[in-house]
Structures are given as structure tokens and as C-alpha cells.
Amino acid sequence: MLLSEGIALVLDRVGLDSGNTTFKNRARQYLNITAIEIANLLRWWWLNRTTTFRTTKTFTLSGISGTFSAGETVTGRVSGKTAVVDSFDATNSLLYVYSESGTFTAEEVIDGGSSSALGQYESSANTRVYTPVDGYVSAWWSFMDETNENPIGIVGPDEYDLLDEDFSVTGNVYKAFISGVDATTGYPKVALYYTPSDTNTIIRVRYQIGISSWLEAQDGNTFLKLGIPQIGESALVYGATKLFLQEKGDESGAQREAAELARAVSLMQKQNLMQQGNRRYGPDQETSFLVRTDNSLVVESG
């Protein structure tokens, strides 16, 4: 189902003109609110994602002309050293590179091999903080150093600061700290420990996406592309209709839609368990039982 089709369904159920822009905008907002609330009810399998990023060096530049391109090779005019561009932060004049062939010379000009961009190299440092996901994240599951086959533990701020108070230690990564959000994008940042001493080390990340705000330009997208699977489409319609009816003061109609919403979410929860297969789930609190997702009897854990 497209977002536009969901909007039309909501307005039809409420009895409002599906061609009215104001009503359409409000329906989109209510669908989005319902999606965000449902997404935070459980650890839904359909929100799980996996990505990778590589460790880099951060080049500070000045006198930049043009835009450096990811994947191109940059070359120092004096040193002749090269490196591959991972990303370019034009706002802060920072170039993130990997696979460098050696040490660049201070104040030499570096040239982009394919972009024809150039800039004066001032200094470099091992990159400690990364933005591995270009989007919102609701939960982090795991980090893994794929290159060195080492798991990376997730720690809190107190432990992270005690590990290396001045962030001067470099080496292979074995701890990660979710350190906040990027001030420009709003996407989450991850600080690593040790500060990586080598570039082009591949870090794998497993995480759960957060549902973003839906805009009119996305009306042609499917709910699946927006992060919601087919099993959740009816729940969004019922939830948005409920909010609309509450706004209109129709409490009996809102209660009817709330009951449908609860039924649809229950179906989603059952499907979520089946998707995970025949697994044992440990209890969240002290208890003498284990819970299985198959047809076996519940048995004492010992």
C-alpha cells in the first residue's frame, strides 16, 4: 500500500474529503504518529538493519575549491602520497580518507583524481567519532570488527571516559559508545575505543531503525519503504482514524477504531514471534520458567 492510499483510506473512514490538502496533511501526520508509537512497542524484526563502515583518517583542509568525491584518490603535490576518499565534510573543511600510502606534507595542495577538487592539507588525525547510519536509530544491537574478527562491546559514558580520559590511545577497536547526534543531520554518532590506529578496518553494525517524519513528497512510497511491513498497514489506518475521530469529538467511533487497532497490533505481535523461528527467550526478570515460541509445554528451568 502506498502512503497516499493509506491517507485516502483514513479520510474515507472518517468521512472527510480525500482531496482536501489540509485533511491529507493531518492524516499523514496521524499515520506517522501511529507508526512511531507501534515501532516502539516491541523489538520488531522488520526494523532490524545491518550496515558497515570503515575506519578513516581525518584531514583538515583550507582553501578548498570544488567538492571531493567518495571513492576517488587524492594525491599530494609535494609528497606524492595518496589516499582514497571515504567522505567529505565541506561545512567543516574535513576530508575523511583511508588506505593512505604515507604521510602527507603540511601545507601542500592535494588534488582529487576524478573530481578535480583541491585543497591545502593542514593536518591529520585518526578518526575516533563516526556517523555509521544515515538515518534515525531506535536501538543498537551489536558492533563487530570484521577485518580483525573481534567483537566490539557497547559501553556507557562513564566507562568510556574511564577507558581513555584524553582519547590518546590508539589500536584495534574493542569498545563503542553511542555519543549523541550530529548537530547538522540529527543522525547518531558513535565514538570508538581504542581510537583506530589503522584505516580501512571494516566495522559491521546491527541496529534497529527509527521511523522518520513523513512528508508529502513521500506519498508515492510504499509503507514498506517507509519502514512498515504489510502486516502493519491496517494498524496504521485504524490508529490514524482513531486520532482523527478523537479530534472531531467522536469518542464512540474512536473506541471502535482503537479496538481494531488493538486487534491488528496483536496480529503483528504473533507474526513477529513466528518470524524469529523456534527460539528460547530468557526471562526479563527473576522467574522459574522459560518461554518458548513453538508448541512445546512451558517447563521449569531448574
Task: Describe the overall structure.
Helix 2 (21-39) crosses helix 4 and helix 4 (233-248) runs antiparallel to helix 5 (251-275). The protein contains five helices and 17 strands. The protein folds into three domains: 3-46 and 215-275, no CATH class; 56-126; 129-198, no CATH class. The mean pLDDT is 92. It is elongated and about 75 Å long. The chain is an alpha+beta fold and 302 residues long. The chain has a seven-stranded mixed beta sheet with strand order 1-15-9-10-12-13-8. The two termini are 48 Å apart.
What's the gist of this structure?
With 302 residues, this protein is an alpha+beta fold. The protein contains five helices and 17 strands. The longest helix is centred in the last third of the chain and has 25 residues.
Question: What's the SSE blueprint?
Answer:
Layout: H1 3-14, H2 21-39, E1 48-54, E2 57-65, E3 73-76, E4 82-89, E5 94-98, E6 109-112, E7 118-126, E8 129-130, E9 137-145, E10 150-154, H3 157-163, E11 170-171, E12 175-181, E13 188-193, E14 195-196, E15 202-209, H4 233-248, H5 251-275, E16 280-281, E17 291-292
Parallel strand pairs: 10-12, 11-14
Antiparallel strand pairs: 1-15, 2-5, 2-7, 3-4, 3-6, 4-5, 6-7, 8-13, 9-10, 9-15, 12-13, 16-17
Helix pairs in contact: 1-2, 1-4, 2-4, 4-5
